[in-house]
Every structure is written in structure tokens, then in C-alpha cells.
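Ticket #4471: complex job returned nothing on first submit. Input attached below:
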Amino acid sequence: MAQEASSSTSSKTISLKTGDGEIFEIEASAAKQMKTVQRLIDDLGDDITIPLHNVFSKELPKIIEYYKKDITGEITKDFEAEFVKDLNDDEVKVLFLAANYLDANKLFEFLSQNIADRLESKSVEYVRKYFGVENDFTPEEESKLREERAWSFRGIKEDE
Amino acid sequence: MQKTNLLESGSIMKRSKSKKTALASQNVYDCVATGHEDRLGDMPDCILHHILSFMETRHAIRTCGLSKRWRYIWTSIPCLYFNSKSFTRLVDFKKFVLWVLSHRDNSHVKVLIYYRFGVDYATDQYLFNKVIEYAALHGVQEIRINLRAKTSGCPPIEIPLPLFTCQSLKRLELKDCQPTNISSPFGCKSLDTLHLEHFSMFPTAADFSNPFASLSELFGFTTLTALHLNNFALCYTGMECLDPFAKCFNLKILQLSEMSFKSDLSPKDFVISAPKLSNLSLICNRFRCKIVVASPKLLNFTYLYSTPCAFFEYSLPSLDGLIIDIHELPEPLEKSHRNKREETLHGLINMLRGHHKAEAVKLSFCTVAVTCGAAALEKPECLSYSKWKSLDFGVGSTYKIFINKLDHITAYFRNCSQHVDFEIVNI
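Support reply: We reran it on our side without changes. The output follows.
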């Protein structure tokens, strides 16, 4: 089948294959929003199943759901709130990494804000675990840092 | 070759295109990480910055205690977000802000958010100057300010000169303040989007023959592509017709909400005629005067109002498509108001008559009652050269809908189109 002109992609669907071998369909116009996918389409053609080695069947449907709403212009604050409502912090992290890999700008921005909101009030310990950071301060360094910070950040509400 | 790599290795690495050395000026989208990370912490700094830049600065700073690598990451976050509500005392807020400004590295600041909610009439001019100066020196592109005072609302403030001379500033949002500057010799040369809310000009600065003149002198209206004005009370004592946006040569988006004219100081006609305007929203304004929408390139018009006193006239020569979304707040259908509603919709029909070049028109009404000026419909003036192909006619409301003469309305439009397959879609 000959390549269709890009102007008539409105009803065309693209097949995406996740890292764990499942295949999902998305509209070509939604694929355009994910720059990585679009680049693969440009290189490989839109008739091939596009392989996404680092995105898995757990998160891809959610991403597709988001962009389905996006192409109809229906993304509202309410939709976004619902979208993340039942996700725990780790699930959001997985989506965020996938959005980054797919170069899906809008979702990436939204999830950055959501992660920031979630981490704002969490303890340093929690944030360390979340970012997978090893605490390499010695106890002395850590207590010195805490002293410094205490002085500079006096009067802040809800200090940890 | 590129192709085989993509298929086999399954990871995509994109090199940063940025030639600048400052980390913070790298576009985060140039730092797409390899696919092998499953821990956020291994991501490059610019992606971490991106997340941290959505937090208030006081939270982002706490990351200095995560590990050695994280000790100074906060110093180059390209966003400063200061909110005095997070501090028990304003004096602590001040100390914190000054501390951050002096401990930050020299990288760019892309966004400055400064919310200082005061308890008294005055705001801290010194601190405000310091913050604006710092941001302007560091190439700020977006500034959002809110200086709401608890007891009196908008404290008087002098907008520091660095804001006006800042060449990098593209978006400015100012809420709840009363600038004492009369005009700036510069205007903001690169300003693209201006959002002013609950913002009043000091009486001495006001030019009553054009209430918008002082705004345009301060900020320079000609570079703007988007303007949002919210919650102003204007005074107008000049000639009958007010056309404040005529010189906004680049303006594409205009939103006026909760605006009103003080008592009798209102023009007879309020003309909105920016030459490139494509999106106009009029929301909950209290204009007791005729609104003339005369923007030739208008594509989208949203109207949500609360006083049934405004009525419209349109003069829109040619469009390809038009979306009009008219919502009326629900209120009891008093007789005195009914006439005014007819006038609103009558004005709408007049506009559409002049709009024969449009091919698709989408009207949606979310109102308690939709009535069409019966007189207008009884003798429909059919334009034989109308190109209308379809009319999406959406009527919806959570309140009781009373549609008067819907058949007349649809028949009217059908008559006006020369197309056999003219479609009316009820949404």
C-alpha cells in the first residue's frame, strides 16, 4: 500500500508494540504528539508496527487514553485530576518516564507538575527513595546541613 | 545506519543541541534520557530541574539534603517560586527570599513567581525591587506577581524599572496591585502576553478619556499577542465611542472578564477592533453599553455574561469558520430581562447575516432560555450567495431549557444557505 499523504492521516491508525510484546493502536494524529513515535514513523513508515522497547503494556494504554482526549481538544483540569487520581506515586513515575521516552510533551509537562505536587510535602527520606538516591552524607555532614538549613529556613510552615 | 540501531538496541539517545554551557539554559527536551533508567535519580539534571521547577522554591531547596550530588542542584533551577503564605511571618519570608537570591548560582531564571500576601496596606517595595532586579538580570521570561493585601486589596506599588527594560520578558501577570508609575519610557519591548487582574491605576495616573491608555503606556500594547484583563473598574469620560485595542497590531487573543465602567462613566459604544484578533472572550462583564465587535479576523468568540444589558453589533467581513459559545448564567426569566435577551440574540443573527462567507458555523447555547427575536425571523433575508454548509447547533444546559421557535431558527439558517446538503446537527 502506498504511503498516504500526511494530510489525510486523520483516520489512520498506527500500531505500537510494547516492550513486553503487546500491540496497541493509536490514531495517527495522536502519534504525532509523541515525537519519538513520529520519528520512528518517519524512518520506518506508518505501515509497520512501531516497536517501543521501553514502554510496557501497563502504562501505554493510559498514555493512549490521554492523547485520545488531547486530539479532540477535551483535556480539562477535571480530566487531568481524574486521570491521576487513582495512581500511586510509583505509577505516576512510570508514566512520567514513559512520557519522557516517547517525547510526549504535553503529558510530560502535566506529570512533572503532578510529581512536584506529590513530593512537595513529603519527607527527605521519601523523596530519596522515590528518586532512587543513596544518602552519601556522613552523619556529621548531615547534621551540619540540617543546622544550616534550620537557620535559613526559619519560620516555614510544616517543616519536615 | 540509524534504522537498524533503532530496531535492535531499543534505546534512543538524543544529544543536547544546546551550545550553551549553562545547564539551566538547556532545553529539557534536548535531554531525552536513554531508555535504561528506571530510577528517576539517574536522569540528567535538566529533567530533575524540570520537576523541581514546578514546586515552590522552599520545597525544591530541601533536595539539598538528599545526597552529595543533590547538594547544589537547587541552585540552578530555572524557576523561582516564592509564596509568603508558606511562612508564618512576613519577615521570615523576606529573609528567605534574600537568602535564596544570594545563594543561587548565576544561571538563568526562566520563571519568577512572587506571591506576597500582606496583612496591611503596604507591600514591601524593597523586597519587590530586589526580586525583580534579580530576575531581570538573569534573563527571566515569565513573571507572575500577586500582592494581595488582606485588609485593603491592592497595595500601591512602584513597578521597578528593570521590569520595563527587561528584553527577555515575554509573559507578565500582575494581580492585586495598584501601580503608582504613570508611564514607562520603554514599555516592555518583548512582551507577548499580559495578564492583569484586580489591578487599578492610581487616580492621578488615570486618563479618563481612554482608561486603557495608561495601561498601554506602561506596558506597550503593540507587541502583545495575548491580553487578559480581569476585574477592573474603568472610568470613561471621553467621546462616545471607545476603541482601545485598535492599535494592538499583533493581538490575537483578548479576554475581558469582570470588567465594568463606574456608574455613568461609560461610553456609548465599546468597540473591539484589533486587526489580527482571532479569539475573543467576554466573561461576566458589567458593561452597560453597546459592544461592537469589529475584528476582521475573529474566529472564536466566547461570551458568558451576568447582566442582561449588553447587546452586540458585529462587523466582521470575512471568515472561514466561526465558533460562538454563548452561555448565560441561570437567572429567573423576568419580563424585563426577556427583551434584552432578544436583543442579544438579535444581534447574533445580524452578525451571521453579514457572515455569508463562513462555511461552517458552530453555535452553542447553554442558557435557560433561547429565544430568537421573532421579528427578525418573520422576514428572513436570505442571502443567496451564502456559503453555509453546516450549522452545529448545540443547546444544552443543566437548567430547564426553553427553546422558543427552534424550528424558525433552523428554517432561517436553512433558507440562508445555498447548499442542498446543508446540515443542522443538534448536539
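The first strand of chain B starts at residue 79 and ends at 83. Closing as resolved unless it happens again.
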